[in-house]
From TrEMBL:
Entries under InterPro entries matching the protein: AB_hydrolase_fold, DUF1350
Name used for this protein in its record: DUF1350 family protein
PANTHER family documented for this protein: OS04G0405600 PROTEIN (PTHR34127:SF1)
Pfam families documented for this protein: DUF1350 (PF07082)
Organism for this UniProt entry: Thermoleptolyngbya sichuanensis A183
Length: 273
């Protein structure tokens, strides 16, 4: 499928799309979502969704990033509504992976943009010192040698994301406006905090939050449909390669099916098993 850049976004649009998806990726791979998440996003386009993937560069000010990606998206949304859909409203879904989840939560709490639902993959909401190993090491250093650190440098060792993890949960509990939400966690993801988000959303909108645990890990949403090509002579390495390929493909296909089923239950039956 053909990608195009528009107003700071990357778009992949099928013929006669039925709805729109705004995608935000993880912190360290979000600068080129059309590459790092290509297979997943093109799959969604093949299912009839106009996909808008907004790149961003990570900073400590997540509020500012959320405002920036929303401004970029609105430019693409205006173009799609006028030139592609040719009507003033179509269903809009947010899709986020890792940090992209937090940004969609901030957008859903701070803006009045109407959404049909949000999909969250591998949500995490750790403090800066947990997310950035260097900060954790410096925090330990400052605790041990606090008396030797000049006062003017002390604030540099106590930085935190804006909003902080606690502030983020409080904001969601009080202001998040998107009622229908799909949460997906992966069984081998050791940095996932989806269950805590599920608890918050369930309290805010009882009966409107769906939580699935799938096979895979934190990187599964960036997976590709791998095809192992054995050599002229089949070897134990080929057997191992095919075994790993089958597992990775199975996890990735299950992720695609789960998202598609939630977005459109009827269309899910047309996906390959």
């Amino acid at each position: 499928m053909e990608w195009r850049e528009l107003g700071g976004n990357w778009l992949v649009v099928p013929e006669s799309p039925t709805a729109m998806i705004h995608f935000l990726g993880g912190a360290f791979v979000a600068a080129a979502p059309q590459v790092t998440y290509r297979s997943l996003l093109e799959h969604l386009a093949e299912q009839g969704y106009a996909v808008v993937a907004t790149p961003f560069v990570n900073t400590f000010d997540h509020e500012a990033i959320a405002r920036q990606v929303l401004r970029s998206f609105l430019r693409a949304e205006e173009y799609l509504l006028e030139r592609v859909f040719r009507r003033s409203y179509v269903p809009l879904y947010g899709l986020g992976h890792s940090m992209g989840c937090k940004l969609h939560l901030l957008i859903g709490s701070r803006s009045s943009q109407e959404r049909a639902g949000n999909v969250f993959l591998s949500f995490n909401n750790y403090p800066a010192r947990r997310s950035i190993p260097f900060l954790d090491q410096m925090s330990q250093f400052s605790t041990q040698f606090s008396s030797q650190i000049p006062p003017q440098f002390a604030p540099l060792l106590n930085v935190e994301f804006t909003p902080s993890p606690t502030e983020t949960y409080t904001l969601i509990e009080r202001q998040y406006q998107v009622r229908r939400n799909l949460l997906i966690r992966f069984a081998m993801d050791d940095i996932d905090q989806t269950r805590s988000l599920s608890d918050v959303l369930t309290r805010r909108f009882p009966g409107m939050t769906t939580l699935h645990t799938l096979g895979g890990n934190h990187l599964t949403p960036m997976g590709q449909d791998l095809k192992w090509q054995p050599g002229a002579t089949f070897t134990p390495l080929d057997a191992l390669g095919q075994f790993m390929q089958q597992g990775l493909n199975r996890d990735f296909i299950q992720l695609k099916r789960t998202i598609t089923r939630w977005l459109n239950p009827v269309a899910a039956f047309n996906l390959p098993k």
